[in-house]
Automatic annotation (TrEMBL):
<keyword id="KW-0240">DNA-directed RNA polymerase</keyword>
<keyword id="KW-0804">Transcription</keyword>
<comment type="function">
    <text>DNA-dependent RNA polymerase catalyzes the transcription of DNA into RNA using the four ribonucleoside triphosphates as substrates. Specific core component of RNA polymerase III which synthesizes small RNAs, such as 5S rRNA and tRNAs.</text>
</comment>
<dbReference type="Pfam" id="PF05645">
    <property type="entry name" value="RNA_pol_Rpc82"/>
</dbReference>
<feature type="domain" description="RNA polymerase III Rpc82 C -terminal">
    <location>
        <begin position="187"/>
        <end position="310"/>
    </location>
</feature>
<comment type="subunit">
    <text>Component of the RNA polymerase III (Pol III) complex consisting of 17 subunits.</text>
</comment>
<dbReference type="InterPro" id="IPR055207">
    <property type="entry name" value="POLR3C_WHD"/>
</dbReference>
<dbReference type="Pfam" id="PF08221">
    <property type="entry name" value="HTH_9"/>
</dbReference>
<feature type="domain" description="RNA polymerase III subunit RPC82-related helix-turn-helix">
    <location>
        <begin position="10"/>
        <end position="65"/>
    </location>
</feature>
<dbReference type="InterPro" id="IPR008806">
    <property type="entry name" value="RNA_pol_III_Rpc82_C"/>
</dbReference>
<comment type="similarity">
    <text>Belongs to the eukaryotic RPC3/POLR3C RNA polymerase subunit family.</text>
</comment>
<dbReference type="GO" id="GO:0005666">
    <property type="term" value="C:RNA polymerase III complex"/>
</dbReference>
<dbReference type="InterPro" id="IPR013197">
    <property type="entry name" value="RNA_pol_III_RPC82-rel_HTH"/>
</dbReference>
<protein>
    <recommendedName>
        <fullName>DNA-directed RNA polymerase III subunit RPC3</fullName>
    </recommendedName>
</protein>
<dbReference type="InterPro" id="IPR039748">
    <property type="entry name" value="RPC3"/>
</dbReference>
<dbReference type="GO" id="GO:0003697">
    <property type="term" value="F:single-stranded DNA binding"/>
</dbReference>
<dbReference type="Pfam" id="PF22536">
    <property type="entry name" value="WHD_POLR3C"/>
</dbReference>
Length: 504
């Protein structure tokens, strides 16, 4: 990974874990897999601090370990991609909240905060949190936990297969990944009553399955694309196709296996809020079939036929559209027109660009070479063999290497993300005094409210912040919201580009 990614990783680790952990992680990023003493030597940190940092990084699955050649010493390897996923934690929780409700959102939040946890402990903690505002039983929370496991949003952590080795080798049988252990409800009730109780699943830990969340995020991009192009009913139809795809196809396959359209029709009939889709189902199917993008194609004629979803082609098309939009915003409409022309022709001579782009020759030449300079276009030289002792002729052809452009755009996204995070941190630093004051006042007010203070007393405490300070705080809050929104939007772009690279 590049230096831009390293800068982003450093900021994320500093915010969440502090300087010591960040220093250890940066060393592993730069030097690759390293043993403990090597890390201590080059970071110049005390051995205890290095051990503590590695324990934290392993807990959050940011570092993995395996025995070296003599099997007595562990080599530690950094996982930079998992650090970047921390920026998506709010998206993961929001997705679960919309799909399963507040209880499941809290379960995911608790496990994300700790890296991993046992089922009994997380159920007890979530029920305690919810009971303050809503009356919900331990059984209901347990059922929500089981639903997350069955939907594969939670997965069991691998465990040590043998106790006699100096460096444990972690592993787990595939059948056990989503196998819910027996949860002793009587033990949970005793623990809730502050009685000492030992849980039967105390050594079985669960963590978040990010891969499952990314499937949902990928499907959402496809559904949103069809919804924007047609309407909500087409989006629902595509959503049904994607859900049925998982029954007969590996989740990350390039192309789905055929999905019978009659199955989709039966599923749509069961949904009472899709009256328009049911009334014009055949017309909507025809609309998808005749769509020129060919992302969903018919694969059979019998019994209404079947459809296949071409996921690799879908994200190739999305990547093209995103890159074209980047060219348009970075340059202008004429440059975007030249870029689309080269994409359409695949290989094209400079003179033909000037003729077919309907742009004055001088301006077309300037924009073409500007795109070339910014690495959006490539040049391939073709030489024609000389005949009769004449001079050798050569032709210059412009073309686009989409993989290279996508990687370049991804680097720009990381650079933009780093700049956004740096600017946000700068705003916090210059306003640190007033932000700290607001936090102290809020803490005092909360404590007084718990003690039963009157409204007049609470008002006096809030008046400790002057009107000019309130205006500054409102401005800071708006600025922080803008930066946070920008980070999430940049991450959306990064995710789409990563999906393209995953399929290629």
């Amino acid at each position: 990974m590049s230096s831009q990614v390293r800068k982003v990783l450093s900021l994320i680790l500093l915010e969440r874990f502090g300087m010591v952990v960040e220093k250890v992680a940066t060393h592993l990023f730069q030097y690759g897999s390293s043993p403990l003493l090597h890390i201590r030597k080059y970071t110049e940190l005390p051995l205890s601090k290095v051990k503590e940092s590695l324990a934290i990084l392993i807990k959050y699955n940011l570092v993995s370990f395996k025995p070296n050649r003599n099997e007595n010493i562990a080599n530690y390897t950094f996982k930079p991609e998992n650090v970047l996923l921390m920026l998506r934690y709010p998206k993961y929780m929001n997705l679960i909240k919309k799909k399963f409700g507040d209880e499941c959102e809290m379960i995911i939040e608790e496990i994300l905060q700790r890296g991993y946890w046992t089922a009994s402990e997380v159920i007890l903690k979530v029920q305690e949190r919810i009971s303050k505002s809503n009356n919900i039983s331990l059984v209901q929370v347990r059922d929500q936990f089981v639903s997350l496991v069955n939907s594969k949003y939670l997965v069991r952590l691998p465990f040590s297969q043998s106790e006699d080795k100096p460096v444990p080798e972690l592993g787990i049988d595939g059948k056990e990944l989503h196998s819910v252990p027996t949860i002793d409800m009587a033990a949970l009730k005793r623990a809730k009553s502050a009685e000492h109780s030992e849980f039967a699943d105390k050594n079985i830990y669960w963590t978040v399955n990010f891969n499952r969340f990314h499937q949902d995020m990928r499907d959402k991009i496809i559904v949103t694309a069809f919804t924007k192009k047609f309407d909500d009913n087409v989006g629902e139809l595509v959503n049904f196709l994607l859900n049925q795809m998982y029954i007969r196809t590996e989740p990350w396959a390039d192309v789905s296996n055929p999905i019978p359209i009659l199955e989709i029709k039966e599923l749509a009939k069961k949904q009472k809020n899709l009256s328009q889709l049911n009334a014009f189902f055949d017309q909507y199917v025809t609309l998808i079939e005749e769509d020129h993008s060919n992302l969903i194609r018919k694969s059979g004629e019998a019994s209404g036929g079947s459809f296949q979803i071409f996921l690799r082609q879908a994200f190739t098309q999305f990547a093209w559209e995103l890159v074209e939009q980047c060219v348009f915003e970075k340059f202008d409409t004429k440059a975007a027109r030249i870029f689309r022309l080269v994409k359409l022709k695949e290989y094209i001579e400079p003179d033909h660009i000037q003729q077919q782009a309907m742009i004055p020759a001088k301006e077309a030449k300037r924009l073409t070479y500007q795109l070339l300079e910014e690495n959006y276009l490539e040049i391939q030289e073709l030489r024609k063999a000389a005949t009769g002792g004449g001079p050798t002729k050569s032709f210059m052809l412009f073309h686009i290497k989409l993989d290279q452009v996508v990687r370049m755009t991804l680097e720009l996204c990381y650079k933009t993300l780093f700049n956004t995070m740096t600017r946000r941190n700068h705003e916090k630093d210059i306003n640190k005094r007033i932000i700290d004051k607001k936090q102290r006042v809020d803490t005092i007010a909360m404590g007084m409210r718990v003690q039963g203070a009157s409204e007049e007393q609470l008002s006096d405490i809030e008046d400790m912040i002057t009107p000019p300070e309130r205006e500054i705080l409102e401005k800071i809050e708006k600025t922080m919201k803008k930066f946070n929104a920008a980070e999430l939007e940049i991450d959306d772009t990064i995710f789409l580009l990563q999906m393209y690279l995953n399929y290629h």
